[in-house]
Specification:
mainly beta, six-stranded mixed sheet, about 40% strand, globular, binds CU-O-CU linkage, binds copper (II) ion
């Protein structure tokens, strides 16, 4: 294999991977299906904690099973693999300070229905169907984190414990099976999780039926209404560098509509896509009030016209429809209408609030960092310019662990991105803040390991200035995050959240080391 170094990569070259036997989603009728709301997970009683058998905590069982569901009025039911018969799976509601047990059961068939690439690490020589579930954004002990190599086969299950001490936020759970994660999530193995507490309750934000998760994911659909995951044109090497679908689903429906009252709503928006970035806006120019990021509330609401979401990122937004009585408002992704809000003409009263102050986000100072790590994001191409491999800091998954932050220490991680892609970088087990981004000259860094900066350090965008667990490392920039490693000692992972990259080596273990 020729590793030709970093490549010029554009959305255009990627689009070529899309093969012609898919439905053109734009030919389907728009806004004919109501937006489904994923069910809230119900606990099946309580169970004793393995560590302290006298304490009983709520116990949930999530079973991954094949299922069928209609994603659009005019399509036949689509085959998915999903948790408890729903895609996205049931929403796991948790309270800060309360521990829960979740059994993640693999009740899938023995054969996969999407194209496995057996060359990838974790897929080679292993059973086709394997799963392990990770609570993304959850700060949980390492043995409950869904380590990619902890996968298990149909008929098996693992029970994880989530001692929720972290601040309220929208998390999500998804498969993390080594070398197969992009296919399992594409198949439907994911769902939302929400942490709440008294402090947040007291803010009186829109709640109950006025608080709605919007889980967004794109797919390619065959004319028969089935999921389509393309393969490369290289024999024996089906992996593709990114999956982009033209069918954008909200909570599992294509072009849904939602009937709303002329009042405030809170939307918990999650980008659950393999590789697509979103820029959401209302056609009529209505604003969003962003109140939170991946890891919880911002200090104050931020009025924005666009919601920008990289894969795995979340935005907590309040939308006030009170001036839009009787209107039908289209929500667009870039220029394409993807969802519709139908505002009723009724007069309603709205006792919810949008407070001017939400929750303090103490800024972590650079001076608090004990260490700075320089970490490159690497793409390698073949003779023909096709991407074949992606690495973090030029290291493969199986190489010895090189990132070993001390428990309770703070570090700066600098992501040096010479590629032409944005890579959304995610760390398990922690929350962090983005310090800044700066343009630099990749060729000089590549040859001399020296930085020539091409502009000033730019602070994070206002909408990403809160607590994060996933940060976009933009092309030809150095992106710095500051991370307190104050969770649990043990082995976790960090990776690019473009799932095709993650599955092809753009993931590394790291270890939080007790002092
Ligand atoms: Cu969404 Cu390893 O995570
Ligand atoms: Cu995660
Ligand atoms: Cu990437």
């Amino acid at each position: 294999m020729f590793l030709g170094g970093t490549r010029a990569l554009s959305a255009m070259t990627h689009a070529m991977a899309v093969q012609p036997n898919t439905l053109n989603a734009s030919t389907l009728a728009n806004f004919v299906d109501p937006l489904p709301i994923p069910p809230v997970a119900r606990s099946s009683g309580t169970r004793p904690l393995p560590s302290s058998p006298k304490t009983n905590v709520p116990y949930y069982r999530f079973a991954a099973q094949p299922m069928e569901t209609k994603i659009h009025r005019d399509l036949k039911p689509t085959h998915f693999w999903a948790f408890n018969g729903s895609v996205p799976g049931p929403t796991l509601e948790m309270r800060r300070g309360e521990e829960v047990l979740v059994e993640w059961a693999n009740e899938l068939p023995q054969q996969h229905f999407l194209p496995i690439d057996y060359r990838l690490h974790g897929a080679k020589g292993n059973p086709q169907v394997r799963m392990v579930t990770h609570l993304h954004g959850g700060i949980v002990p390492p043995e409950s984190d869904g380590y990619p190599e902890d996968w298990y086969v149909p008929g098996k299950s693992l029970t994880y414990r989530y001692p929720i001490q972290q601040e309220p936020a929208m998390l999500w759970y998804h498969d993390h099976g080594m070398g197969i994660n992009r296919l399992n999530i594409y198949a439907g193995l994911f769902g939302a999780a929400i942490i709440r507490d008294k402090v947040e309750d007291a803010l009186n934000l829109p709640s109950g039926k006025y608080e709605i998760p919007l889980v967004i994911f794109d797919r390619l659909i065959t004319p028969e209404g089935q999921l389509y995951y393309p393969i490369s044109d290289k024999p024996g090497a089906p992996w593709i560098p990114e999956l982009f679908g033209d069918a954008v689903l909200f909570n599992g429906k294509l072009f849904p509509y939602l009937e709303v009252e002329p009042r405030k709503y809170r939307f918990r928006v999650l980008n659950g896509s393999n590789a697509r970035f979103y820029s959401l806006s209302f056609q009529n120019g209505l604003s969003f009030h962003q109140i939170g990021t991946d890891q919880g509330l911002l200090p104050a609401p931020l009025s924005i016209k666009n919601v920008q979401l990289a894969p795995a990122e979340r935005a907590d937004v309040v939308v006030d429809f009170s001036d839009s009585r009787g209107e039908q408002i289209v929500l667009k992704n870039d220029a394409v209408g993807v969802m519709q809000f139908r505002v009723s003409a009724a007069k309603v009263s709205d006792s919810s609030s949008l407070p001017a102050e939400l929750r303090p986000v103490p800024k972590i100072l650079e001076s608090q960092a004990a260490k700075t790590r320089l970490l490159t994001l690497d793409e390698y191409v073949s003779f023909t310019g096709e991407p074949v491999l992606l690495l973090l800091n030029a290291s493969y998954w199986h190489e010895p662990i090189s990132e070993k932050p001390a428990l309770n220490s703070t570090e700066i991680w600098s992501f040096i991105n010479p590629t032409d892609d944005t890579h959304p970088i995610h760390l398990h087990a922690v929350r962090f803040q983005i310090l800044d981004r700066q343009h630099y000259e990749p060729s000089i860094y590549l040859t001399k390991k020296e930085f020539r900066f091409l502009g000033p350090r730019m602070p994070p965008e206002p909408y990403e200035a809160g607590w994060k667990d996933t940060a976009s490392a933009h092309s030809r920039m150095v992106t710095r995050i500051i991370v307190p490693f104050d969770s649990y000692p043990g082995r976790y992972v960090w990776h690019c959240h473009i799932l095709e990259h993650e599955d092809n080596e753009m993931m590394r273990p790291y270890e939080i080391v007790a002092g």
